[in-house]
């Protein structure tokens, strides 16, 4: 009897797992269908919206209620972190004083699937009264929101993934993707770079990877350097004293000509090794970094080439050194 109960329980678990996987795959299929339809629908209105926001002297004010409001918050955050100053204004709070946050130089982007969200009413009237440009993101052309907007971006009519309740699923996925598309298009229009992006993301792994060589390199006075004619017996001491596992070899003008590592010492450890000079043993024209090179790029190069240190040069002269531990310490991955 106990064995039968266990068997029934096992079969029920298999049914639930199979059913859940089928449901999940169907949800994703519907949302992918929505994204494909959204991609195909983009045209002149999208380009006009990008141009309108790009030309604005003020900020992008993103608004929406309920699930659309959550998407609007994320959209404002993405705009702000990619070079387009933005903020989220709650439509209900706007009616109680937050309309004062919106200036005539701003552009408002309003999200509503139906386009008939009552809480947006005062905000829409405010944009009309003061001639503030309005971009609508909605599923219904001809809705109150659509009629109020200078540009309306209409979401394709694709069924929601939650067929039982019609809860916003496919539509909010399309809204989210459309916001990302606007942000990236604006980023490119502004010529926003990884360096600019790092300025808005100083913390976490992303911020660490976007830090530059000059931010983490050991300074010039700590560099293990030696001249081209330095005997190998002295090179060993330079490497040991430096603590980086390598020595940079420079000419009489201070330009970096080569590098000698612990591995080079071992490979050249022969009976006549002591009679050799740095110029005879060094690896010529080593790969180097610039002060503006991103930490993430430096670590990636080290990993690919199985090296632990790289010199940072300026005008051919070494001005710093980045060790793999320096990257790992600040969280670069």
From TrEMBL:
Pfam families the UniProt entry points to: CBS, SIS
PROSITE patterns, sorted: CBS, SIS
Residues annotated as domain SIS: 49-192
Cited InterPro entries: CBS_dom (IPR000644), CBS_dom_sf (IPR046342), GutQ/KpsF_isomerases (IPR050986), KdsD/KpsF-type (IPR004800), SIS_dom (IPR001347), SIS_dom_sf (IPR046348), SIS_Kpsf (IPR035474)
Keyword check for Transport: no
Record bears the keyword Metal-binding: no
Sequence ranges assigned to domain CBS in this UniProt record: 217-275, 282-333
UniProtKB keywords: CBS domain, Repeat
NCBIfam families on file: kpsF
Sequence similarity: Belongs to the SIS family. GutQ/KpsF subfamily.
Protein name: SIS domain-containing protein
